[in-house]
Amino acid sequence: MTDAPIGIFDSGVGGLTVARAIKDQLPNESILYIGDTANSPYGPKKIADVRGFALKVLDDLVAQDVKMLVIACNTASAAVLRDARERYSVPVVEVIQPAVRRAVGTTRNNRVGVIGTIGTVNSRAYEDAFAAATNIRLFTRACPRFVEFVEAGVTTGDEVLAVAEEYLAPLRAADIDTLVLGCTHYPFLRGAISYVMGDAVSIVSSDTETANDVYRILVGQGLARTEKAPPSYRYEATGNSAEDFLDLAHRLAGPEVSTVDLVETGVFSLSELVEFAATHPNSEHNHAASLLHPRDARHTKETS
After folding, report:
1. Among 6, 180, 239, 285, which one has the highest count of C-beta atoms within 10 angstroms of its own C-beta?
2. Could you tell me which of 277, 113, 283 has the C-alpha nearest to residue 200?
């Protein structure tokens, strides 16, 4: 079991920040990453829909025998964390609590801001997470276009700064001294966010804090990989274009993501996808069926 990979899940490429932080702290660990790009972005979607998408991907990771699940998406964490910890026998780590603990320990004036997707902010997951810190005044702000920028590979420029100024102005006016990046896409915009907020505001990003939790659990539960052979890194995406995923991953995270396998979209089950493709030969889902990873094709034959 210790040689099994860590399963990391995000709605798209934002979770690569968490994957990179885990690799930095645990360079001997293998990683299996899935970006649900077919259903990205999660932020504007209903929490019930996000829950359905997320559980399908998490089920797939568990079926591939990962030893731990990392939900590297704030919106998904808010939607499925409780379900995931009841549903799976492997440890589950998410990105909200680690960032909250760091923010509580960082703030000097007890005025903390959180920026996130519409789904994360509306879920009030951060209000719940900060509830035990009764001395903290919390100010939240949805920044939906930030994810759009990152998914387009745009992380700097006049438009990014203008949108950041608009989104962050109320938080500056609230005199916060600590800002939580409540979306794993946002670290890619950390330069612009820090510039707008100023040097007096500490930025808390969940990637490093989540990696700390992963390290603590693996070591504490005796799950750390001890094999001397090099670890493996595998990346999967649910969209229909490996080239698009790789191009964006390379621009944002560098050349470390060299290949990506396309897997089921999460909208149809595998058998439903193949059946739909057979009866709708001109549908885009027929193209998706032809792009299934060989692992999924084998699974389809067994379950059809």
Report:
1. 180
2. 113
